[in-house]
Amino acid sequence: MAKTVEDFNKRRLRSSNITVVVSIALVLFLLGLMGLILINAQKYSDYIKEQLVVNAYFDENFDAKDSVKIVKQENDAFKKIQTLAPVKRATYISREMAAEEARKSMGIESSALFEENIFPSSVEIALKPEYVDPAKINEAIKQIKATPGIMDVKNNSTLMVEVYNNLNNILKWILGFSILFLVLAVVLINNSIRLKIFSKRFIIKTMQLVGAKRRFILKPFIKEAIILGVVGAVIGLAVLFGAWYYFITQIGTPFVQDNNQLIILVVGIFFLGIIITVLSTIFATWKFLRSNVDDLYYS
């Protein structure tokens, strides 16, 4: 009979641990998924912002005898623009390149209908994502205009502001959902741990009644919580990156190319699972350590 009871308790304990581990793994999987989505949303937001270019034009009217001087001046201006703080990427477009691009856009094959010098040379500039901000873009354009040799700067500021605002709104929603998942992670893991500790409330109180100190009683529960947190985090992360790898191989698009962000996410999720599990265990155990014997039947 005693053996049967002991076996039953072992099975119940094993089942309880499995439930806690699965809960931790599932919650951390969902939390990690939101983290990956947030990281990639930020990266693609920056990528889209970098496609919103500003065009800086050189003077199209100059004497042919000054062509060498003009070319040097344009090269110096181009190098100066590349060093400006707001500039992410700059591309020099000569008069010949501008004429060729115009022919292609108009579908004209012959160069006889075009004069190459009717188009001014220019610099196509992609701003850093933070300078697409409506509050900073005017300052960026002012710096570009101040470059010697630049006659005019054109950009579609209305489109930039609209894209910037829309992307930021999307990122705010994703961040909001990520915070919501974090709160849910804490609540769900905490509830799983409380149920596990609840099943051991009589053991906790018995140890206390025979003289065991609270630190002594807490110690094995904390050790077990660390092990459960580690196992749950490892399983959750393994499933997460397995599913993510399958996803990116199916659509053929690379994601999360910044290894530093990926490492921070993995380490954060791993330790978050352990910390939540340990703190939930401490709070749940402490509750029964402070309770009376009669309260154990009504908790």
Structure overview:
By secondary structure, this protein is an alpha+beta fold. It has two domains: 1-47 and 163-290, no CATH class; 52-156, Alpha-Beta Plaits (2-Layer Sandwich), CATH 3.30.70.3040. The chain is built from eight helices and four strands, in the order αβαβαβαβαααα. The chain has helices at residues 2-50, 67-82, 95-106, 134-145, 157-198, 201-209, 214-251, 259-290; strands at residues 53-58, 87-93, 122-127, 150-154. The radius of gyration is 32 Å and the shape is elongated. The model has no long low-confidence stretch (mean pLDDT 77).
Quick overview:
With 299 residues, the protein is of the alpha+beta class. The chain is built from 8 helices and 4 strands.
- The amount of helix comes to over 70%
Largest sheet geometry: 4 strands, antiparallel
SSE arrangement, N to C: HEHEHEHEHHHH
pLDDT average, as an integer?
A: 77
Question: Low-confidence parts lasting 5 or more residues at pLDDT below 50?
Answer: none
Shape: elongated
Beta-strand portion reads: 5-15%
- Taking all Cα atoms into account, the compactness measure Rg is 32 Å
Number of helices, counting only DSSP H or I runs of 4 residues or more: 8
For the biggest β-sheet, the strand order reads 2-3-1-4
- SS-derived structural category: alpha+beta
Count of domains: 2
Instruction: Compute the number of strand runs.
Output: 4
Distance separating the two termini: 29 Å
